[in-house]
Amino acid sequence: MKTNLFIAALSLVVLAGCSSENEIDTLVSKSDNAINFGTYVGKQTKALDKGAFNEGDKFGVSAYYGDGTFEANFMSNEIISTTDGSTWTYTNTKYWPEDKHVSFVAYYPNLTTAPTITGGATEIPFTVDSDATKQVDFMWSTVQMATKSDKNGTAINGKTNDTTGAISVPFVFQHGLSRVLFKAQLGASSYAGVTINITNVTIKDINSTGTFTIPSTLVVGSWGSLSETKDYTALNSSTTISNNTATLIGNSLLMIPQDVADKTIEITYNLVYANPELTIPNTKTITLAASSKWEINKQYTYIFTISLDAVDLTATVDSFDATTADIEL
């Protein structure tokens, strides 16, 4: 499965500007030397159906000018914003150096305060919203050693880049979270005289807060300092399961990658009889395997199979690039 991407670009446009005496002395104040931002949306990037940037969207950029260890000496948590989904602006205009390269770290969504940079490593805090409908897809991208004449840089997201001749410096945003989906099906094609309605699916005791650290080499980052466990509900309204074809239920969850060994998923469903009228509630708790783990930029699909005498679960993993698990009930 193709990796879901955001592509952002740094492009040169004709703008009037001048450099002040306290700017880095190698910057040249030419009218075609200002750095502007443009963005291109690949696929959905939020739990909500978002297929394009919209009014009010923002991402952050930190940038390093020169050689040595990465630090935010060129841009520090510069907030890039749009009022129409395609035109991007920021406050502290910067210009391309003539003699040295610039390396960039970008992160979506933007931060209210600058990320901590320690020993060249950029530490980005993030918290997953407890409401599945409000969750945001955390993404990151890096571009190393971009110059005015070679805006592709030497590497993108830590992978060597041999492409030349670009008119912009590409940010290829990658997913920093894991995506969790739930599906349900009957254990048989149908059950005469009874309707099965799922009313709630909740996964318990999941770390909601962490720090994504991009190392000084500007390769893919990793998560640490996980804390604040919460329960996450994917479904809290009645959904009827009518056949043995696995059907998506509830909302997807965008979660911090983590060890989920022995975590539990709770499903509540009703058996509804028409003659005579009777509703029998059921709640089942399924414990995930000791080897269970959510990894960065992976999708995990858990499938409930509901029979009148049992509930089973299976799981798969894929790229968010997708994973699936079956649960029999």
Account of the protein in words:
It is elongated and about 80 Å long. The strands form 4 sheets. Strands 1, 2, 3, 4, 5, 6, 9, 10, 11 and 12 form a 10-stranded antiparallel β-sheet that branches. Strand 10 and strand 11 form a beta hairpin. The chain folds into 2 domains: 170 residues, Immunoglobulin-like (Sandwich); 151 residues, Immunoglobulin-like (Sandwich), CATH 2.60.40. It is 0% helix and 52% strand. The N terminus and C terminus are likely disordered. It contains no helices and 25 strands. With 329 residues, it is mostly beta strands.
Number of discrete helical segments = 0
Question: What would you call the shape?
Answer: elongated
- Tell me roughly what share of residues is in helical segments: under 10%
CATH names the topology of the largest domain as Immunoglobulin-like
Instruction: Kindly name the structural category.
Output: mainly beta
- Quote the beta fraction: over 45%
Taking the alpha carbons of the first and last residues, their distance comes to 30 Å
* Domain module tally: 2
Estimated radius of gyration: 24 Å
| CATH architecture label of the largest domain | Sandwich
Count the beta strands. 25
Mean pLDDT equals 82
What does the main sheet amount to? 10 strands, antiparallel
CATH structural class of the largest domain? Mainly Beta
Low-confidence stretches: 1-31, 40-51, 323-329
Q: What is the ordering of alpha helices and beta strands?
A: EEEEEEEEEEEEEEEEEEEEEEEEE
